[in-house]
C-alpha cells in the first residue's frame, strides 16, 4: 500500500518537549497532581504594558488587515535598535524578518541557506527542533557530542573534526537549551573566527540572551567577529525574555539575500505574523528591561534550588547551569539498576517511570541527542520545584 504521508514529513519526530508538556497538562486536566518540568515556558504573565498595547491594537482597524509579509516596518526598526542596545551588533531594519516564533525563523533560515546534502554541525545536547528543521530543508545534521565534563560546551577541535567538504553551517547556541551552558566571550570569538577561516555559516540562536547568571556573560558572535556578519544568521524572539511564548513572535537577522529568500518563503507559507502580536512585540522590545530583570532574579533563585536538590540524589549529577532556565542532570549511574521491580534500561524509560510512579513530568536526554540525561525546566514556582524534585528524590531513593 502506498504511504499516505510523504517520506519527508513521516521522517519528522514529534517535539518531545511539547509531547511531555501535553501529557502533563492532560493528566492535570483529569485531576491528577502532576508537576510539569517539561516545557521551557516562563510561569510569569506577559508584562502589563505589553498586554495593554495589544488590547489597544485590537480596536484599531488598521491592524485588521494584511501587513507586509516580512513584518511591520516599525517593529523591524525597533529590533535593529534593540539588537544594537542588547548585543552591540549594528544592523539595518532591512536585515530583519519577523516570523511566527523562533521555530519559523529557524526553518526559514535553513530553507533559505541549505541545498540537499549540505551538512550542518550541531553540538549536542541540542534543542529538539534543530535537527528536524535541518532535515526538512534538505540538510544533514552532523552531531558533535559534549557532556557535563566540558560544561556542555564544544571545542574548536571537536568542531574541526566534524568539518567536511560538505559542511555549510554551524548551529551555535549560548545560553543553551537544554543544558543552560554559556560560552565565554573568548570562546564565542574563537569559534566565530574559526567559522570565518573555514568559510562556514553560523546560525546563532540568541533567544536566551538576557537569562545569564553569576559571572557568566552573554556574547553575540557577529558583534565580536564583525567579518562573520555576511555569513551569519541570528535567530531571536520575545518568547523567553518577555514571557510571551503564546504570542508567537520571533525574527531572524541576516544578509540581504538570505532575508529576501526567507521572506519570499514566508510570503507563501504564512504571510505576515498576526498584527496584534507584532504590536505587542513592539511594546516589548522598545520598553525597559525591568520586568525581565525581576523574572531573572526568580530564575536565578530557582536554578540554585533545583540544582541543589537534584545533585544530592545518589546517582544524579547535576551541574549548576549558567543561563536559560533548564538543568540537565546526568542519570547515567542509574542505568542498569532496578526501581520498583523494573530494570532501568534508559533515561527515556526512567522519565516514563517518574511520570507514572510519582506524577512528575521531565524530558529524557534522548530527545536532545544525548541519552543518559534528564532535562527539567525551572521556569515554574519554588513550591513546584520543592514538591516535584522531592517526589523524584523519594522515588530514586528506592533504586537498587
Automatic annotation (TrEMBL):
Annotated InterPro entries: Aminotransferase_I/II_large, AspAT/PAT-like, NHTrfase_class1_PyrdxlP-BS, PyrdxlP-dep_Trfase, PyrdxlP-dep_Trfase_major, PyrdxlP-dep_Trfase_small
GO terms, molecular function: pyridoxal phosphate binding; transaminase activity
Domain Aminotransferase class I/classII large positions: 33-392
Entry's Gene Ontology BP terms: amino acid metabolic process
Keyword annotations from UniProtKB, A to Z: Aminotransferase, Pyridoxal phosphate, Transferase
Cofactor: pyridoxal 5'-phosphate
Sequence similarity: Belongs to the class-I pyridoxal-phosphate-dependent aminotransferase family.
Protein name: Unannotated protein
Annotated source species: freshwater metagenome
Organism phylogeny: unclassified sequences, metagenomes, ecological metagenomes
Amino acid at each position: 500500500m502506498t504511504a499516505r504521508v510523504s517520506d519527508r514529513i513521516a521522517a519528522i519526530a514529534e517535539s518531545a518537549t511539547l509531547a511531555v508538556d501535553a501529557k502533563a497538562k492532560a493528566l492535570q486536566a483529569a485531576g491528577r497532581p502532576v508537576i510539569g518540568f517539561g516545557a521551557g515556558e516562563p510561569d510569569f504573565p506577559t508584562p502589563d504594558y505589553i498586554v495593554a498595547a495589544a488590547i489597544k491594537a485590537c480596536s484599531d482597524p488598521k491592524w485588521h488587515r494584511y501587513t507586509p509579509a516580512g513584518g511591520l516596518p516599525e517593529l523591524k526598526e525597533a529590533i535593529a535598535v534593540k539588537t544594537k542596545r542588547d548585543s552591540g551588533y549594528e544592523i539595518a531594519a532591512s536585515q530583519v524578518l519577523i516570523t511566527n516564533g523562533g521555530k519559523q525563523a529557524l526553518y526559514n533560515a535553513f530553507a533559505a541557506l541549505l541545498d540537499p546534502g549540505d551538512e550542518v554541525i550541531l553540538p549536542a545536547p541540542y534543542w529538539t527542533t534543530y535537527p528536524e528543521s535541518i532535515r526538512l530543508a534538505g540538510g544533514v545534521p552532523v552531531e558533535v557530542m559534549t557532556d557535563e565534563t566540558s560544561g556542555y560546551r564544544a571545542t574548536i577541535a571537536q568542531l574541526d573534526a566534524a568539518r567536511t567538504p560538505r559542511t555549510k553551517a554551524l548551529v551555535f547556541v549560548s545560553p543553551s537549551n537544554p543544558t543552560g551552558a554559556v560560552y565565554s566571550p573568548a570562546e564565542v570569538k574563537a569559534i566565530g573566527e574559526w567559522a570565518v577561516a573555514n568559510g562556514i555559516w553560523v546560525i546563532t540562536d540568541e533567544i536566551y540572551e538576557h537569562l545569564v547568571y553569576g559571572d557568566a556573560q552573554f556574547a553575540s558572535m557577529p558583534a565580536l567577529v564583525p567579518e562573520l556578519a555576511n555569513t551569519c544568521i541570528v535567530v531571536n524572539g520575545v518568547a523567553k525574555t518577555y514571557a510571551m511564548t503564546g504570542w508567537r513572535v520571533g525574527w531572524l537577522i541576516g544578509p540581504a539575500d538570505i532575508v529576501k529568500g526567507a521572506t519570499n518563503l514566508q510570503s507563501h507559507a504564512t504571510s505576515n505574523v498576526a498584527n496584534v502580536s507584532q504590536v505587542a512585540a513592539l511594546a516589548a522590545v522598545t520598553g525597559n528591561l525591568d520586568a525581565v530583570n525581576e523574572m531573572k532574579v526568580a530564575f536565578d533563585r530557582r536554578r540554585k534550588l533545583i540544582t541543589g536538590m537534584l545533585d544530592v540524589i545518589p546517582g544524579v549529577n547535576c551541574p549548576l547551569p549558567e543561563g536559560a532556565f533548564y538543568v540537565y542532570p546526568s542519570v547515567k549511574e542509574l542505568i542498569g539498576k532496578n526501581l520498583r521491580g523494573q530494570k532501568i534500561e534508559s533515561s527515556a524509560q526512567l522519565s516514563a517511570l517518574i511520570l507514572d510512579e510519582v506524577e512528575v513530568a521531565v524530558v529524557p536526554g534522548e530527545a536532545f541527542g544525548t541519552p543518559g540525561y534528564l532535562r527539567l525546566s525551572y521556569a515554574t514556582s519554588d513550591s513546584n520545584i520543592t514538591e516535584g524534585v522531592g517526589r523524584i528524590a523519594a522515588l530514586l531513593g528506592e533504586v537498587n
